[in-house]
Amino acid sequence: MSALGELKRERIDQLAARAGQVPEGEGGVSLTRSALRRLRRDPVAIIGAVIVVLFLFVAAFAPFLAPRDPLAQSLLSDIRPGFIPGSQEGFPLGVDNLGRDLLSRLIYGSRQSLMIGVISTVLGVIVGMALGVLAGAFGGRVDTLLMRFVDILLSIPSLLMAISISVLLGQNQYALMIAIAVTQVPIFARLLRGSMLAQRGSDYAVAAQALGIRKSRIVFGHVLPNSLSPVIVQATLSLATAIIEAAALSFLGLGDPDLARPEWGAMLANAQAFLSIRPELAIYPALCIIVVALGFTLLGESLREALDPKFRR
Amino acid sequence: MSSVPGGPAGAPVLEVDDLAVTFARRGEQATRAVDGVSFAVGASETVGLVGESGCGKSVTSLAIMGLLPRRGVTVSGSVRLEGQELIGASDSRLRTLRGAHMAMVFQDPLSSLNPTVQIGTQVTEVLLEHRDMSKSEAATEAADLLDRVGIPDPSRRLKEYPHQLSGGMRQRALIAMALACSPRLLIADEPTTALDVTIQAQILELLRELVVDTGTALVMITHDLGVVAGLCDRVHVMYSGKIIETADRHELFARPRQPYTGGLLASVPRLDAGRGTPLTPIRGSARDAIPWAEGCAFAPRCDNAQDDCLTEVSGSVVPLEYDGPGRELRCRHPLEHPPAPSGATAAGAAR
């Protein structure tokens, strides 16, 4: 076999040198960033995100989007027992039994529903996570004690629990948020505790222990970040539940005492009496609730897949 | 019974004396995973613990590091690191020793690194924990460490996540973390098992260099006799929780005395064996062991077993006895080797 020619050898060296180089800006890809990247490629996630963003946009810019004042009454002369005017010039979806523009009320109603959903879920996540971290970090007796408490909470049907709490706290929207939050707490506590216990026995936690890292640092720096993804997913899904529950509670008359303020659940409750005359009064708010809940659910489901480390590359 | 004084220089770094670990579960009979293990490792010395899965190697290492759970586990005996007793030491005391004076490298480099945290953070964390360093000093030191274990372009790697590194590089990063504070003792628990063969050789070479350079005592836990042959000075063969044979590397390969050691050596596949030649495994599996109190645990699988391998007086264990200079043996009917130099073919002798 003859030796490589001088030119060939040079060329090989050049190619090898180039292969060794790494393109700039290819640094670390964090979990969140790679999850976002995967979300962007997932059509289901995009549909969910579009729905959620759309409703958030509507809620944020309600005063500019609503054609009329949601409290102003008009067309009163047309409203008779047994008749509520439908869609017409200036009132694209018609008016309700008190002559208020339905579209404007739906638009303003998104504010209330989303706010209750978000705040109650955030409350639930914070308290639930605190309980979960305590149980997951300490284990043993603390864990047993907290989990029995959570079990008790879980054994009460969530709607019943929410009703009792809002009755207890009085009829206002803060009570409503707290009531819904309380029903979410055990779910998050259990979820986080479970995934922390699983992560605590993992190799990297033992390895960190073998390197003499202090326990608080192992729990908060290693175990917790790896246990969060089910909680994030559940939070997104819980938003949908919270919105539905908020609607259900206002439907039952436990929501905002100010009945004039537009809120989907209350609108739905109000429309009951006129179902035979104008079913649209119930259909539109119901549709809003369903679509928002669907948006959050779709987003949550694809988030679950995106955050799954098994799909990480 | 006493441990063989190891190491060329003075007092051993690690002395393990009569270490026993028992796992107890409610309503079940307690399992003795490690049963009276004694050995010593000196500075710059590499000692191998060899045996099949389930023979107690890993439990031994976890017991030394104090990483076994407290509940349901009883550890007795003595483990001294540079003269300090570790068994019964407080959690906080152990924590300051771990990482700084003794460190461990685990089997699976991917799962031993936190997937959500950058490599750099994981390396600097160790430095910040044990060494009085500022964040920026630790970052520089971390880059140095990665460079020392042969990771190219360390400052870029520090910003990457474990899944972006190759298997060999992950193990290098873990070794860097283990060596961050120049520990006196490093325990490597099958550090090459999850790696492919070419990387295995590199990692072993790296470990050898580091041990020689820094004078670290290395305990190598493995079931791979190739690793033993390449790296270890002394070898302890374990079976069913006990050391059954101790010898220098060359001695062990040339003249295995315990039939189990002989079987291990014979079962290594040989490249020069003809095509279709069957492998020579050891009969049965590690689960066939009998309790040491009843006799030699290996007897059910042993070709040399005779009546007196089972103890007549229950409770008298086959002792670990002196077996020539630097050797110890726990066997009543060891393999005999002719004094002729042809004893080098261990495989032949074992059958």
UniProtKB/TrEMBL annotation, chain A:
Q: What is its main location?
A: membrane
Please name the Gene3D superfamilies in this protein's record: MetI-like
Which chain regions cross the lipid bilayer?
Answer: 44-66, 114-137, 149-168, 174-192, 231-254, 282-303
Does this UniProt record's set of keywords contain Ribonucleoprotein?
A: no
The alphabetical list of record keywords is: Cell membrane, Membrane, Transmembrane, Transmembrane helix, Transport
Give the superkingdom in one word: Bacteria
* Annotated membrane topology: Multi-pass membrane protein
InterPro entries under this entry? BP-dependent_transpt_permease, MetI-like, MetI-like_sf, OppC_N
**Subcellular location field:** Cell membrane
Which residues does the UniProt record annotate as the domain ABC transmembrane type-1? 110-300
According to its UniProt entry, one GO biological process term is:
transmembrane transport
Q: Where is it found, in Gene Ontology cellular component terms?
A: plasma membrane
PANTHER family given in the database record? D,D-DIPEPTIDE TRANSPORT SYSTEM PERMEASE PROTEIN DDPC-RELATED, OLIGOPEPTIDE TRANSPORT SYSTEM PERMEASE PROTEIN APPC
- Family as reported in the entry's similarity comment: Belongs to the binding-protein-dependent transport system permease family.
Q: What is this protein called?
A: Peptide/nickel transport system permease protein
The protein's organism comes out as: Blastococcus mobilis
TrEMBL record, chain B:
Compartment annotation: Cell membrane
Tell me the SMART domains matching this sequence.
AAA
InterPro entries per the record?
A: AAA+_ATPase, ABC_Ni/Peptide_Import, ABC_transporter-like_ATP-bd, ABC_transporter-like_CS, Oligopep_ABC_C, P-loop_NTPase
GO BP field: peptide transport
Indicate how the chain sits in the lipid bilayer.
Peripheral membrane protein
Keywords for this protein: ATP-binding, Cell membrane, Membrane, Nucleotide-binding, Transport
What CDD domains does this protein map onto? ABC_NikE_OppD_transporters (cd03257)
Q: Which Pfam families match?
A: ABC_tran, oligo_HPY
Q: Name one GO cellular component term.
A: plasma membrane
Major localization class? membrane
UniProt keyword Magnesium, yes or no: no
Q: Which Gene3D superfamilies match?
A: P-loop containing nucleotide triphosphate hydrolases
Could you name the domain of life of the organism this protein comes from? Answer: Bacteria
Q: Where is the ABC transporter domain?
A: 14-265
| Gene Ontology molecular-function annotations | ATP binding; ATP hydrolysis activity
As for family, the record states: Belongs to the ABC transporter superfamily.
The name under which this protein is listed is: Peptide/nickel transport system ATP-binding protein
The source organism is Blastococcus mobilis
The record lists the lineage as:
Bacteria, Bacillati, Actinomycetota, Actinomycetes, Geodermatophilales
